Amino acid sequence: MALMQVRGDWAPMRGALEQIAAIGRSPQAILEAIAVELEDNTRRRFATNIAPDGTPWAPLNPVYASSRKPLPILVQSGQLRQQLSTEVRGHTIIVGSAMPYGGAHQFGATIIPRTEPRLKFKMGGKFFSPKKVVIPARPFLGFGAEDRVAVEEQLHLALELAMRAR
User: Fold this and answer.
1) What are the residue ranges in the chain where pLDDT is below 70?
2) What is the pLDDT at residue 119?
3) What is the pLDDT of residue 26?
4) CA distance to 112, 119, 127, 128, per residue, from 116 (Å)
5) For the residues of 129-147, what is the DSSP string, one character each?
6) From residue 149, how far is each of 28, 154, 155, 158 by CA, in Å?
7) What is the pTM of this model?
8) 133 - beta bridge partners?
9) Residue 106: how many CB atoms within 10 A of its CB?
């Protein structure tokens, strides 16, 4: 039989383990750090026009594209991106936009007239009168690969700091 005996002061290891356990008992600080990263990643999607799952957003209607400022797809006024906010509630991180049309862009929408048989609008210098307009989904909210990396990096940093805090 072979044995090994290790002796010493286990207080530093115990202290590090207590620090790690403290993260789990009170994760507010790490969740807030992760929330900042998730909001930053969401804002970047407005520049890349790429959904969280990595798929490109549907292109703009060419007639509409010719009549607007040459900006990324969901950045005409900038309000949708500017109104992004993050909140930590308990053990939940919430990222969203306060703009009422955010859902139409996130999930897609069909616009139909309420009081008239057809919609009426001008686009690209021409008048249109369709029965409906379909806005394709262009998801800007969600949890993608870059978000997973951000979470892992924040957790790694928190554990590293806990290990040093002995």
Assistant:
1) 165-166
2) 96
3) 86
4) 9, 7, 16, 14
5) --S-EEEPP----S--HHH
6) 19, 9, 10, 14
7) 0.83
8) 111
9) 19
User: What gap in Å lies between CA 72 and CA 86, rounded to an integer?
Assistant: 22
CB 88 within 8 A of CB 32: yes
Q: Residue 55 carries which side chain, given as an amino acid letter?
A: T
Q: What is the pLDDT of residues 91-132, one digit of tens each?
A: 999 999 999 999 999 999 999 999 999 999 998 889 999 999
Which residue reads 């969280």 in tokens? 52
Residue with tokens 């115990």: 14
> Among all chains, which residue has been given the structure tokens 């805090």?
165
Residue 129 in tokens:
């009168």
**Residue 96 in tokens:** 């969203």
